[in-house]
Structure formats: C-alpha cells, structure tokens
Design brief:
429 residues, alpha+beta, six-stranded mixed sheet, six-stranded antiparallel barrel, 10 helices, 24% helix, globular
Length: 429
C-alpha cells in the first residue's frame, strides 16, 4: 500500500524535508495508478468504513487505488495534525494508527485450498503453523511478480483451517482475475471468498502498539511473535489480529467486522499514546525499513530473486520435481540454483549530499557508466539523510561500492548499503 498526489502541507519545514515530502508524494502517486484508472472514469472514489472520521480529523484526502484516502492530517490545531516527518518519528517512538482497509482480503476454503494457494504463490502453506503468516509473491509464468501478498494459515470456528490472504488494493482486480483463471485450470475443491469493503483493516504500529491492544483485549500477547495471528474480542467484536506491519516497527494489523469498525477506530485513536498517520508517513516508514512498494521496487518484470526476496520462496517449494509447482517455478528456481543467471539486484543507496534521488534516477559508476536505476527515494525522517532503493547491475551491487546518482542533470555520490536503513524491531517471543 502507499499514497498519492496533490501538494502536501509543508508547514515550516526546511528545504530538505520539503524535498522528502515531494518525493513521497511522487512515489505514492504512481503506486496505485492502475486502480485509479479503474474508478476515475466513474468519478466515484470508493470510501473505507472510517472515511467520515478521516475528514473530520482533517485528513487531506487523495485518490489512492480508486479509494479516497488520507495522505496526511492537516486541520489547524487538531489533535492528529502532524507533518510527515513528525508522524514518522511518532510511529517509531510511540504508536500510530493507519487505515489500510482499501487492501483486499481473500478467504480460501475447501479441501484443496492449501494446494491451490501453493500453486499461485511461492508460500509453503502446508508447512506453516496454524495462525502463522508469511510474506509471499504471486508469480507469473516468467517469474515476474504479479503482486506481493500476505498469506496466513488461519483457523476459525466457522471455517476451520483455511487460508486468509491480503493483496494490494491497486493490484486486486488483476490478482482476482488471475486467481479466477487459475481456478478454472485447477479443478479442485476450492472456494474463493473476497472480503474487501465489508470489514475494516487497521494497522497500529510502533513500540507501544501491542500494549494498547493488550489493554483493550485484556490479554497478554508476550507469547505472540511477529507473523502470528489470533482472534481477540475488542470492544465486543471478534477481530482477527496479526502481529505484523509495513513500517519496520512492532505492531499489529486488525481485521474488524463492519458493524464495529467505527467504534474500534475511535477507541484506538483516542488512546493517549496514539496519533493518526496516513499514506505519506507510511511510505517514508516502509522505505526506511527497506520494504518494497509494488509498482516501483517490484513489478511483473522483476523476479523475487532479483528483488532480494529469495526467502519468500519456501524451502519445501524449491524442488524442481515437485508435484504441485508454483507458477513461474522454472525461471525462479533456476535463478536460485545458478546465481550467474541473475544480472541485477535490488540494493540500498545512501546519498550524503544533494537532493534525494527520485524514482527513475540513473545510477552510475564514478566514471559515468550506467549501471542501474532508482525505484524509490526520499529524505529519511529518522536519519535526516537521503536514502534510496534501486536495481544495480552485478558486480556493482556489492555493499560499499561507490556509485553516483543523477538528479536534475547533476551527479551526486552514493554508496551501496545494507537494508534496512533504520533497524527493524520485529518481535520474537
């Protein structure tokens, strides 16, 4: 998920921070362009269940993946009004509440559901513990990434063991079409139930996020690791709570039934430790954490190996002779087996001077040889330095390689660095 256009409120920020904000805006503008086109023709943007709350709290609403979503909260003297810089810092120090209800959920049931999800993703669904999730990708026949996705082996009283999957809002139409086509070829006992606008999905992120949920639920979550899920009663509503997120911080994502969505949102937002956060801060946070944004850092021409996501291909899924290979297994497994087939890799770049490198900026050697391209870049609110993600040809991807980025026709020094740029704080029980 990500964010969108229109000028952001720049308050009394210094020029470097203004540039960071502009970079975030540009990145988010493109991230859901496919989704925007789908709804723009009708002139009718979709709304999440707490849209009215966003507006009341001063949300600067923009078109994101066909939804009216807040990029920032800007109402003068309102409790949740913050710059993107301050919102990013608040998330890393306390807890921020994001509405991510625009993302699409899918429930897979039936005796062959695990086999089907393993066919269309690289996840080892059968190997997951119950109520455990993993990041995965939906590959095409050439090994490119149709979308990145969260896959959880879930259990509920109503459905027993099943798969609960979340995909990006801007990619959901093509994802669902792809799944329907594959279901026609698969022929097993599988049911796809799309759960999109009938539930709220909130990300509560930051070091104080889990203790807030513990307080609301009256439960101890100290034995719940990052990536694990459980059912919790929150204000009388049965909610699926996953300890995960897209910020690099500890936190949870909460799936809440429609009838309780507004009540829970307001209860969370009124906690003294919590501030509302929006798409602008979310993009800065994920970039600092070195996380990919679909349509920028990954797309249907990039393989998970090139993206540095080899780990999303489950160990049990790497057998070339598997009875149920995932789509695109041949090119992906070939790259795992023979690294010489991989010509470029995703890297982090630290740029000590000049304006932040934006998406599309050329990456060169100090001698001016073109060796790559930037896919995301901003001024890090935490580091107060320019950071970027990009693809660089081998062998120039090696850590510590001196390179340069071309911004506005001028070359500025940059160095390849390990990601994340800001240390992640994923919790392990």
């Amino acid at each position: 998920s990500s964010c969108r256009s229109r000028p952001l409120l720049l308050c009394a920020w210094s020029p470097p921070i203004m540039m960071a904000s502009a970079c975030v805006s540009r990145t988010l503008r493109k991230a859901a362009s496919a989704g925007r086109a789908r709804h723009f023709a009708s002139g009718d943007l979709k709304k999440t269940l707490v849209h009215a709350e966003h507006v009341a709290d001063g949300g600067k609403m923009v078109d994101f993946a066909g939804y009216s979503m807040p990029v920032q909260y800007t109402k003068v003297d309102a409790p949740h009004t913050m710059s993107i810089i301050d919102s990013t810092k608040w998330t890393r120090e306390s807890a921020s509440l994001f509405d991510v209800s625009h993302m699409c959920s899918i429930r897979w049931t039936g005796k062959d559901a695990f086999d089907f999800v393993e066919r269309v993703t690289t996840a080892d669904v059968k190997g997951l513990d119950v109520m455990r999730g993993t990041l995965s990708v939906i590959p095409n026949e050439k090994g490119g990434i149709i979308d990145d996705t969260m896959v959880t082996k879930c259990h509920s009283k109503e459905h027993g063991e099943h798969v609960y999957q979340v995909v990006n809002a801007g990619c959901a139409p093509k994802d669902l079409k792809h799944f329907e086509e594959q279901l026609g070829k698969f022929g097993g006992d599988v049911k796809m139930e799309v759960l999109w606008d009938s539930r709220g999905l909130y990300a509560l992120q930051g070091p104080k996020a889990v203790q807030i949920v513990e307080k609301l639920a009256g439960k101890d979550l100290s034995k719940v690791s990052f990536g694990e899920s459980l059912w919790l009663n929150l204000l009388g509503a049965e909610c699926l709570v996953s300890r995960c997120g897209y910020t690099g911080e500890d936190g949870v994502e909460i799936f809440v039934p429609e009838e309780a969505a507004v009540k829970l949102w307001n209860a969370l937002k009124n906690m003294p430790e919590v501030k509302l956060a929006a798409l602008g801060a979310r993009d800065a946070l994920r970039l600092e954490a070195g996380l990919c944004l679909y349509g920028h850092d990954i797309d249907d021409t990039i393989t998970p190996i090139e993206a540095g996501l080899t780990w999303v291909v489950g160990k049990s899924r790497r057998d070339p002779k598997a009875k149920n290979p995932f789509i695109g297994a041949e090119p992906i497994l070939a790259q795992i087996a023979d690294k010489s087939l991989v010509k470029k890799l995703r890297v982090g770049l630290m740029q000590p001077a000049g304006p932040p490198a934006r998406e599309g900026a050329t990456i060169e050697t100090p001698e001016g040889q073109h060796v790559g391209v930037v896919t995301s870049g901003t001024m890090s609110p935490i580091l107060r330095k320019n950071v970027a993600i990009g693809y660089v040809d081998k062998p120039f991807n090696k850590m510590g390689t001196p390179l340069q980025v071309v911004v506005r026709g001028r070359a500025f020094p940059a160095t390849t660095v390990k990601m994340p740029f800001v240390p992640t704080k994923y919790f392990k029980a």
